[in-house]
């Protein structure tokens, strides 16, 4: 397991505990949680595989709007009841080496080997990677997902075509940006990333105005050499 990060002075951090729970200062366990991974936002902690405390009542992300609620997109689900949710299944199936688990029960992956297409680097600690939605949940919400059924939002949030195992730091830097505002640093992956974004957006019928479509066209021309 990766090294734990100490909290930054004078700044609240989200604490990902050994039991996989994300605690912010509204949690009764916040001060009692001494060993943890530090995250800047609740979204980052959840993307790292954490879950909310049952009694959680605080804001889920400092970037969320009043209209957007991450709970509208149920994800990291264990649909077959084997105790391995969407994140764990991806870590298992996409590791190029046999994975090790944190316990004998085999619910949570500890180590393996994952190639991050965004950076081209290989990571062997599960705690160092996030599962990124190429088309972010918040972006989808702003472009039509606010009108979807819960079933469709759940499908979108757990769609393997839209998920990539990537560096935690790169996923954090991307935030909720689309490919016209953020591209992977690996230039050899920028075209595939942009085209996948377009494919997913088309698959789910996301809506864009003329200005947004023109910006998308410009980026595709630049990174894919399209006319």
Tell me what you see in this structure.
The protein has helices spanning 42-47, 86-94, 137-142, 150-157, 168-174, 187-203, 210-224, and strands at residues 14-17, 22-23, 36-39, 100-101, 109-115, 122-125, 129-133, 163-167. The chain has two domains: 1-53, no CATH class; 78-224, no CATH class. Helix content is 30%, strand content 15%. The chain has seven helices and eight strands. It has 227 residues and is α+β, with helices and mostly antiparallel strands. The longest helix has 17 residues, at 187-203. The termini are far apart. Strands 2-1-3 form a three-stranded antiparallel beta sheet. It is globular. A hairpin with a 4-residue loop joins strand 1 (14-17) and strand 2 (22-23). Mean pLDDT is 86; it is low at 1-10 and 59-66.
Q: How much β-strand is present in the residues?
A: 5-15%
Rg, nearest Å: 18 Å
- Separation of the first and last Cα atoms: 47 Å
Question: What is the string of helix and strand elements?
Answer: EEEHHEEEEHHEHHH
Uncertain residue ranges: 1-10, 59-66
Summing up helix and strand content along with how strands pair, one would put the structural category as alpha+beta
Q: What oligomeric state do the depicted chains represent?
A: single chain
Helix content: 25-40%
């Amino acid at each position: 397991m990766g090294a734990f990060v100490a909290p930054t002075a004078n700044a609240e951090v989200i604490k990902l505990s050994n039991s996989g729970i994300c605690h912010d200062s509204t949690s009764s366990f916040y001060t009692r949680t001494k060993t943890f991974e530090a995250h800047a936002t609740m979204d980052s902690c959840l993307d790292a595989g954490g879950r909310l405390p049952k009694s959680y009542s605080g804001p889920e992300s400092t970037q969320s709007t009043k209209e957007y609620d991450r709970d509208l997109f149920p994800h990291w689900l264990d649909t077959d009841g084997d105790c391995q949710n969407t994140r764990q299944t991806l870590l298992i199936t996409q590791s190029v080496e046999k994975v090790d688990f944190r316990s004998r029960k085999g619910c949570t992956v500890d180590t393996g080997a994952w190639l991050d297409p965004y950076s081209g680097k290989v990571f062997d600690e599960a705690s160092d990677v996030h599962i990124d939605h190429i088309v972010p949940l918040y972006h989808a919400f702003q472009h039509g997902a606010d009108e979807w059924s819960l079933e469709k939002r759940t499908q979108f949030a757990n769609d393997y075509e839209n998920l990539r195992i990537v560096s935690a730091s790169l996923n954090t830097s991307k935030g909720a940006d689309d490919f016209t505002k953020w591209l992977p640093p690996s230039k050899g992956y920028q075209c595939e990333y942009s085209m996948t974004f377009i494919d997913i957006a088309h698959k789910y019928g996301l809506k864009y105005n003329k200005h947004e479509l023109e910006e998308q066209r410009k980026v595709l021309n630049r990174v894919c050499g399209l006319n």
